[in-house]
Design a protein that fits this description.
The complex is a heterodimer of chains A (about 90) and B (about 240). With about 90 residues, chain A is mostly helical. Chain A contains three helices and no strands. Helices cover about 75% and strands about 0% of the residues of chain A. The longest helix of chain A has about 30 residues. In chain B, about 65% of the residues lie in helices and about 0% in strands. The longest helix of chain B is centred in the C-terminal third of the chain and has 28 residues. Classes of the chains: A mainly alpha (about 90), B mainly alpha (about 240).
């Protein structure tokens, strides 16, 4: 089995993208925008797993960052926005 | 501030020391992966070594993982499901009017289902498997909600359908393990013939366990979506409906 023991340029670029993406997610304050930025950050992580020759974690990362995590965020955002818009006593009806 | 600076400096120094001591990039020291790479394909005939590992070599671990998901979905359901009927009023939400968006959405539903089924079915031959495949399948069904309406999605949030199917997926894994026990072998022993390498018939019980995991994950995610949608989707004000 051969394992690349040095960082090839492609891997270095993807590592850099991940390093840039992570603070961007933290620095985005609006939850809705953060869900989008996090999705893009997830794609850079998928690229990282692919260039490191790990397709199975790449697929898992893809489904978590594209389906599961945004849904939780968006559902929470919808709830918070909706409650801000509606008077409290008419909740649950 | 006077406290923060030395703390940051100290932590930074420790972090730098730890990073300096890491093995070189690409330096793999564990014998486990090397051994598996050598034995899984000849012994189990599954060309995706990862699946051969997760569903056979350490199949009990994967059963634990499946039940972690099962338990967390039960937790969400217990917290969010409202049996009092107060929320039973049919939620009315916007239906998308843009035909182009709906067309793209419908294509995404079909494409997503196809990719999901492929990931589950060929999980032990090419990268994929029941876990990512199940999430893709449920995600494709969720797109139906986005392009349709709350009403169109109603079959996929019916708890009387989802609950038993989820149980079938989670229980199917255990039953496959128990079948080996009944046959007088240790729990989760691979009972069936290993088939020809690189075909769908390879891997013996790996394929069955993979399918059970796929079913369990798909319906776990659908249950989760159903609970979230019931709880979080706020009905529109009457004047908003139909606009």
């Amino acid at each position: 089995m051969t394992v690349a023991s040095t960082l090839v340029p492609l891997q270095a670029v993807v590592f850099a993208l991940v390093a840039i993406g992570a603070p961007l997610v933290v620095l985005t304050r609006d939850p809705l925008r953060q869900a989008l930025v996090n999705g893009i950050y997830g794609v850079t992580l998928v690229c990282l797993f692919v260039v490191l020759q790990a397709p199975d974690p790449a697929l898992s990362m893809l489904v978590v960052s594209a389906v599961a995590y945004p849904l939780v965020i968006l559902a929470a955002v919808a709830r918070v926005r909706g409650e801000r818009r509606r008077p409290k006593e008419t909740r649950d009806e | 501030m006077a406290l923060l600076a030395p703390a940051l400096l100290g932590n930074g120094a420790l972090l730098a020391w730890a990073i300096a001591g890491l093995p070189r990039f690409g330096d793999y020291r564990g014998p486990y992966g090397l051994v598996l790479n050598r034995i899984v394909v000849p012994l189990r005939h599954t060309t995706n070594v990862v699946m051969g590992t997760t569903f056979d070599v350490r199949g009990v671990d994967t059963m634990g993982e499946e039940f972690i998901l099962y338990a967390s979905v039960i937790g969400v359901t217990l917290l969010l499901r409202d049996e009092s009927g107060a929320r039973r009023v049919e939620r009315r939400t916007w239906r998308l009017r843009a035909d182009a968006v709906r067309l793209v959405g419908v294509v995404m539903v079909g494409g997503g289902l196809l990719v999901g089924l492929w990931l589950v079915a060929f999980g032990y031959i090419t990268p994929g498997g029941g876990f990512p495949g199940g999430v893709v399948l449920s995600g494709a069904i969720l797109v139906l909600y986005l392009v349709g309406s709350h009403c169109d999605y109603s079959p996929f949030r019916n708890q009387h359908v989802l609950d038993p199917l989820e149980a079938v997926g989670a229980g199917g894994y255990v039953v496959t393990g128990l079948a080996a026990l009944v046959a007088g072998m240790p729990f989760l022993t691979n009972l069936f013939g290993f088939g020809r390498t690189g075909t769908l018939a390879s891997g013996g019980s790996i394929g069955i366990l993979n399918g059970a995991a796929g079913v369990a994950v798909t319906f776990a995610m659908l249950l989760l979506f159903a609970e979230f949608l019931e709880t979080y989707v706020v009905p529109l004000e009457p004047e908003d409906v139909g606009s």
